[in-house]
Input
Amino acid sequence: MKFRVLAISTGGAPHQLRIEAPNSEAAQRLVAGQGMRVIKVESTFHWHWQIPRRQSRLQVTTFAQELVALLEAGLTISEAIDALADHEPEPAIRQTLWKIAAEMARGATFSEALENADGIFPRMLIASARSSERSGGLADALRRFSEYATTAESLASTVRSSMVYPALLLGVGALVVAFLLGFVVPKFSEVYREAGRDLPALSRLMLAWGSFARANWQAVLAGSVAGVAVAIAGIKHALRNGAIRRALLAIPAIANLMQAFEYIRLYRALAMLLQAGIPLAQALEECIIAVPKGLAEAVRSAARALRMGQQLSDTLERGGLIDGIALRLIRAGERSGRLSEMLDRAASFEEQRLSRTLGTLTRMMEPLLMALLGIVIGGIVVLMYLPIFDMAATIE
Output
């Protein structure tokens, strides 16, 4: 059988070897005979009929939660990572855990091992782990990060779920309109063309489209697919360069939602890093990863102002990173020395406001979308049947 062996040489460098041996114990002996310390041994045997699966990525929040449980059970960090690797069924995730174990076996700290793990772990987790290595309490640091990540994901899920029904409504409406214009209207256009009657101007225009679509359906289909592809590519590009964010900020109701969401992420991240013992200016710099690109420069400027001795509340106010209630809470935290607690309270206040605004906006959007779709679909149907009404009036 063939085995993949992760081992550490006498110089401390990790090596991944492929060994052919009758069993795993024999593979370990072969590697140990070369003067290396064996970390892990894994069989590379697979059934030929096995269907390849999509490569999985490590879930950072789950990883942090499981580490907390193992550390609180009395395991060291190295033992905890070994235990997680032993019970991990996904080869890609197990490989990541092995790499962390190998880095630590050659003398790297936990935070350094996370930093060298191909960008899998966020900077805030790395910074929190690094701070805990100086002050102790790695389990507490990991718990704070998992709570922060869980809260952030819950908030994002709330926003997404609020948009599901409107998006579904628009999608179904678009499909109905496409069916009418691509199938029903061409059928009606053929019937009216054979009847040879004069039609209302709007009906003639729509039925002319129907005749064109019927005669050139391949080109219409290809153009529709190409148009959707171009639209998706354009949306992705606009998301990357911040154009969509700038456009949405021009709409007051949506701008308030976006600002509340961004404030919450900033305040939660900053509170978590402060609780981990990271200095305020450095913590604010680490928070750049938690905000969109449009706010990154404002956060960076606020961090520079903090290093010059200014108050957090003043720098956030000048950068447009705070509103009235949160400003008062953070100033109270600065006076009382409970800044991280007040940042959490400011985030909670923003979450409540965001939830209320989302509920109101969703309730307003649903009837408006229904009315819009009713007008569009109803208009198409009326224009198709107008000639029939004219014919009926003539017969009478």
